[in-house]
Amino acid sequence: MVNHPQVQAAGAERRLQELGITLPPPPTPLGAYVEAVRSGKLVFFSGMLPVINRQPRYIGHVGGQLTSEDGRKAAETATLSALAAAKDYLGSLDRVVRIVKLGVYIATEGDFRDHPKVADGASEMLLQVFGEEKLSGRVVLGVASLPLGVPIELELVLEVEN
């Protein structure tokens, strides 16, 4: 793996500024649930969608109405929503010790096979913000459908400082 010393040296909040990334407003529940639950040092986030201000930014199936690149961009958008939710819940992304789990669920057509390329939109965004030492393994699955007809849903579990 490649060492990213400049990412490791800066905190997540500073990295967002350096990258010129402005987080969207934190997502709000679309049903009867909360966006985040803490148990000990772990914070479990509800499924994060490529939705900003309650409006889907992408709709359709990857490999059908959407290209792999569209799916990748949708994964980036869902990751920005996840980061906004984390910042809202924690007060600062600098409290993140590590990413424990990243799950990427992709609504796909037929025999679509580029799941890893699409999921890299989420993984690479997290790499840029948190650095390689805080990344986790991931699970990537193709599914028949997702809420609101979006192509991506992320599952995120973070370890945070006390």
Please outline what is shown here.
By secondary structure, the protein is an alpha+beta fold.
Quantity of strands, as a count = 7
CATH topology, which one? 60s Ribosomal Protein L30, Chain: A
CATH architecture: 2-Layer Sandwich
Average pLDDT score: 93
What is the alpha-carbon Rg in Å? 15 Å
Percentage beta strand:
25-35%
- The multimeric state of the shown protein is single chain
Q: How much helical structure, as a percent, in the residues?
A: 25-40%
* Largest sheet entry: 5 strands, mixed
Query: Treating each run of at least 4 consecutive H or I residues as one helix, how many helices?
Result: 4
- Helix-strand pattern, N to C? HHEEEEHEHEE
In which order are the strands of the major sheet placed? 1-2-7-5-6
How many domains? The number is 1
Corresponding CATH superfamily: RutC-like
* Morphology: globular
Distance between the termini: 30 Å
Low-pLDDT residue spans: 1-9
Q: Report the top-level CATH class.
A: Alpha Beta
Structural class: alpha+beta
Explain what the structure shows:
The structure is a single chain. With 162 residues, the chain is an alpha+beta fold. It is 32% helix and 26% strand. The strands form two sheets. The chain has a five-stranded mixed β-sheet with strand order 1-2-7-5-6. The protein has a two-stranded antiparallel ribbon with strand order 3-4. Helix 3 (68-90) packs parallel to helix 4. Mean pLDDT is 93; it is low at 1-9. Pfam families: YjgF_endoribonc. This is RidA family protein. Residues 13-148 form the Endoribonuclease L-PSP/chorismate mutase-like domain. InterPro entries: Endoribo_LPSP/chorism_mut-like, RutC-like_sf.
